[in-house]
Amino acid sequence: MKRFFRNRNFSIGFVISSIIVTGALVSFVYTPYDPTAMDIRHRLQGPSQTHWLGTDHYGRDVFSRIMQGAVNSIIVGLVAVSIGMGFGVLLGSLAGYARGVPDEVIMRLSDLLYGFPAVLSAILITSVFGPGIINSMVAIGIFYIPIFSRLTRASSLSVWERDYITAARAAGRSDSSTMFRHILPNIMAPLIVQGTIQFAVAILAEAGLSYLGLGTQPPKASWGQMLQEAQTFMGTSPGLAVFPGLAIGLAVLGFNLLGDGLRDTLDPKMTGAR
Amino acid sequence: MTTYLVKRLIVLILTLLLVSIVIFVVMRIIPGDPAQIILGIQATPEAVAALREQLGLDRPLVVQYLSWIGALVKGDMGHSINYGVSISELVIQRLTVTAPLTLLAVLFSVAISIPMGIYASTHQNRPGDYGVMIFSQIGLAIPAFWAGLLLILLFAVHLNWFASGGFPGWSKSFSGSIKSLLLPAVALGLIRAAVLARLTRSSLLEVLREDYIQTARSKGLGERVVIYKHAFRNAVIPVLTILGLQIGQLLAGAIIIEQVFFLPGLGRLVYLAINQRDLPVVQAVVLLIASIIVIVNFLVDLMYVLLDPRIRLE
Predict the structure, then answer these.
(1) Which CATH architecture has domain B87-276?
(2) What is the DSSP letter of A117?
């Protein structure tokens, strides 16, 4: 762990993302106010001691809503990365192991999805299956599959060629056992790094979808939706358009730095790859 | 070279066909009957059946797909359910906003990122380099639509230099139209610039360590000639790749940015079409954006070949 904290990016990223994750976890047991409770008499108030970041047009406490929004962002990030990594690793391993036709088919399909912007695809999917947090997580996750499958294939191809793999196979270990016991553990580092980076991208994508009204649905708070609602009141309550955006920026910055730090420490060859 | 070009063209056409099949299938698995959606829940079954026949929805899927593609090849994208006009007409009209917006965003991002990347790589580990890296980290972290909101807050609400949104139209006011695209282009381009600045820096740093750069320097060539004529030309290939890929990101980003600035572009068209369940429009515009992405990637590939003879030899 010490070697991670010697990396400046990792340390800063760790602190920022810990604050965001802690805020999200605390919101399950405590928020200063009920994030969905309206109080019209105290609407559009600026930051004060009673409402740290002010109130929105329904009088809801902005700080409490940002805390609840963090939960949504983290869930979307986790589920999208799990879908992308789960299927991507499976397909990438298969392509790297089988080579030939399966490899060609999987990689050409990955190429097709790879250049397609996740937000556009997510818009298409949420427009067909309806808006909501689950559809947006699935939509973002699907478009992560090629990223992880390409990475898994590329990393596993070189590992299959190593001497210790030949030794393991010569010793009679089956291919599936070699895959799980030798190949996958050896390609975990780039996968973890990519996972952290895609986690940050998912937060951005979810914010965009929620801004368009296709992601998290009211009354649940989400950062993108808070910014969409704030736009009407920007002249009188600029804070409403600033604080949720800061939360998105901080969360993405935190996870990006964490990813950069992990990459520098776990896989120095990838430095500068982004 | 010709063989390479033909091969790439075949792959391009196959990719476009595959994209069109995916979009067609996704649109067909949507819950609900499009004819019923158009006519509303109070429509009689006879009316729904008649409309299904008129729209060709009663035909087999393969026939529907082939007639859709056949019409597309002739430039007929179908008819919008809500606007009642041809989609091609709508798209062309909206492209007059989205195309210049995307172009301005690309110009802005290239204009600031390339000099930043060059400066950072030639001043590695100095304050200027750190400044560029911080800019790049922040740029990667903030969503374009929030950057747009902040620009509105500063330049429209506080300084009153720009309108907070809207588009006067090219025929009404050319300068007004350009002005209304500036803030959204900056918001879109700023984020892209962060990626490009970082990439230009890392790509140039790598090239500057090459032996031939030392040779160029030892020949007594000036630093400017070494950087711009020798190093930059070789460092620009990965930058071009990302720039090509970014066209897609920019078009996707335009969907949200046009919403922030109330611009009547392609993005806003598709956004409203989603809300109004105008699926032929969604289908046509998504296919158009996807095709632009695929074609731009193809052009980027061709540009590599022109810029790097080694790829031609392979």
Answers:
(1) Orthogonal Bundle (1.10)
(2) -
Other residues' Cβ atoms within 10 Å of the Cβ of residue A64: 23
Q: Which of B10, B142, B195, B296 to mutate to test the interface with A (most CBs of A within 10 A)?
A: B142
Of B246, B248, B255, B257, nearest to B145 by C-alpha is: B257
SS3 A61: strand
User: Between the CA atoms of B72, B68, B250 and B275, what dihedral angle is there, to the nearest 10 degrees?
Assistant: 130
Residues of chain A with pLDDT under 70: 115-116, 267-274
Sign, CA torsion B172/B173/B174/B179: negative
In angstroms and rounded to an integer, the radius of gyration of the C-alpha atoms of chain B is 24
Q: Where are the alpha helices (DSSP H) in B209-278?
A: 211-218, 223-225, 232-260, 266-275
- Beta-carbon contacts of B267 under 8 Å, excluding residues fewer than 6 positions away, are B98, B251, B254, B255, B256, B257, B258, B259
Interchain pair B290, A200: CB under 8 A: no
| Contact between A227 and B256 (Cβ < 8 Å) | no
Length of chain A: 274
Residue to substitute from B140, B196, B242, B270, interface A, most A β-carbons within 10 A: B140
From the list B150, B164, B293, which residue is nearest A115 (CB)? Answer: B293
* CATH number for the domain running over A7-20+58-273: 1.10.3720.10
ipTM exceeds 0.85 = yes
| pLDDT number for residue A274 | 46
CB contact under 8 A, A256 and B137: yes
Contact between A245 and B274 using a beta-carbon 8 Å cutoff: no
- Cβ neighbours of B137 in A, within 8 Å: 253, 256-257
Burial of residue B174 (CB within 10 Å: 0-12, 13-18, 19+) is exposed
**Number of helices and strands in chain B (H, E):** 14, 0
Positions in chain B short of pLDDT 70? 1, 30-32, 308-314
Residue B252 is nearest to which of A120, A126, A250, comparing CB atoms? A120
Check residue A61 and give its pLDDT. 95
Q: What are the residue ranges spanned by the domains of chain A?
A: 7-20+58-273
